[in-house]
What we know:
Layout: H1 2-7, H2 9-35, E1 41-45, E2 48-51, H3 52-69, H4 75-78, H5 81-103, H6 110-119, H7 121-124, H8 135-143, H9 149-172, H10 177-188, E3 190-199, H11 211-220, E4 226-227, E5 230-239, H12 240-244, H13 251-266, E6 270-279, H14 286-305, H15 310-317, E7 329-333, H16 340-346, E8 358-360, E9 363-373, H17 380-413, H18 419-425, E10 430-435, H19 449-455, H20 458-463, E11 470-473, E12 476-486, E13 489-490, H21 493-526, E14 538-540, H22 550-558, E15 566-571, E16 576-586, H23 593-622, E17 626-627, H24 638-645
Amino acid sequence: MFDFVRKHTKIMMGVMFLLIIPSFVMFGIQGYNRMNEGGEVVAKVAGAEIKQMEWDNVHKNEVQRVLASQPNIDPKILDSAEARYATLEKMVRDRVLAAAAEKSHLVTSDTRLAKSLESDPSIAALRKPDGTLDVERYRQLVGAQGLTPEMFEARVRTDLSTRQVVAGVLGTSFASNAQSGVALDAFLEKREVQVALFKSADFASKLSLSDADLEAWYKDHATQFQAPEQATIDYLVLDLDSVKKSIVPVEADLKTYYEQNAAKLAGQEERRASHILIASPKTASADDRKKARAKAEELLAEVRKAPASFADIAKKNSQDPGSAPNGGDLDFFGRGAMVKPFEDAAFGLKVNDVSDVVESDFGYHIIKLTAVRTPKQKSFEEMRPELETELKNQQAARKFAEVADTFTNGVSEQSDSLKSVADRLKLTVQTSTVLRQPAPGTKGPLVNAKFLDALFSADSIEKKRNTEAVETGPSQLVSARITQHTPARTLPFADVKDRVRQQLTAQRSAELAKKEGEARLAAWKADPAKATGLPAAIVVSRDNAQQQTPQVVDAVLRADPATLPAWVGVDLGAQGYAVAKVNKLMPHEAGKEELLKQGRDQYAQAWATAENAAYYNQLKERFKVKINVAQPNAKSAAAAVEVVKQ
């Protein structure tokens, strides 16, 4: 094929001219660019596409939002595949609910939008003494989120409309006492039992295993004694840390960075405030919350009349036991230390200003800002180590893409060695032994599934070629070549004889324990009077197992109450066998009414959540949701996923 192209260059140029040039005339170069603008399609909702670029941008904003509220969280967790996928799921959910709202003509009126904005504590705190909104501070508040007031209000309007989609399900869901009672009775029910255990370990001494027994069992279970496929490899890792080693920040760049980021690098502003709290938890009834707010409004009126009396009013009326004795003083705090409504109000005040009533999950607050502490600006020399680290991180991130191309091309062009790429990029060729099936819980780039697939491919094993550059993590590429390969093989009997003896002993002991237990169960069922020497009776339930195994507790609670007393046998597998005599049901403890009420409430909430999830799944089918990205299987970074979903 290539010889034909080389020998018929003019013909091929003519074909290219006829096929390609007219398309440029018709569509233009920009048309070609627009065809792939935004990258690959990662999801579709109701025919509308979500592209890679949009996903990347939204996730970047999510990461910035989380880091702003939780600065101590590891950014690597937020850049994990699990966290990125959670962002995509959130985008899809927003699109689905928006489509459902539009289809059902669920709109938010200007009146409802205004009412919602007025009830937002962060916006209420921006009101002037005459009750009008401080427009400039409002612009600053929404501008911190990268939005104009119009964009912010459009987002709130959309959010209010989409909430109506699920409100009909959540608002009408209920669970009767009979329904919740079935679940709660199963959890809270108690039974008096006597449990006889036949432990496998007690039967081990009764066994006598010959070498012939061991060899016969080994032959029948040879697959349990295999050495896994493995390879000794040379490998290279290109990541941000390796790129940083070659970066030496220029003095002028350090000074410029310092000048541009001096305020940010100085640290976080802290504020000191006092408050009066009228406690009313979120779980309180609507009437109780209304009364608490009315009380807070009365106290606010007192404070407005005599601002200097704030501390005295706080001492007498605040229901925060920690701060009330000190006149409501909370000392200095930074952003992220208080619940959001409180924080937004406190950081929107000027010194000696008093807020309106601020609602939070704890109740109603009246806040007085008493001081502002601005961090001292450090000198350039004091900040130099931190500046160098920050600038190296930024320069390494920018340089990585360029170096990654060199790495990727290098390991492919000279596929029989990693040395030339290592020398060019100042990397170190490392060696390791890698298993085809890593042990559970093993971490690191060399246990990445995609990397192992490339490493143990036929081309890599037979021809000892470099693998392609495999992305094993954010800003991390790995390439390797096999120097020695060992296929999976069955280990000789002599090497595993002790393991065979242990496993066969455990199996035979469990069989003897089960046989003895079943015999006793049959005898005691036939003649309960012979069941002498049983352990003392205990009371078990699902929330108090009395050190019994889950299998025993489950079997005991499944026994038919109409046939008590009853006998049950439980196979405990390798642990042996249990025989339990279920004597009688035990009544619920007195004083559990409040626990039962909480349980019914939780059951109703869980039921509503399940109905909501089912409804959402129906909406996904209705609007033909398709996600083209594989869902990560790993359970790491779960906390961050929850943070992103919030």
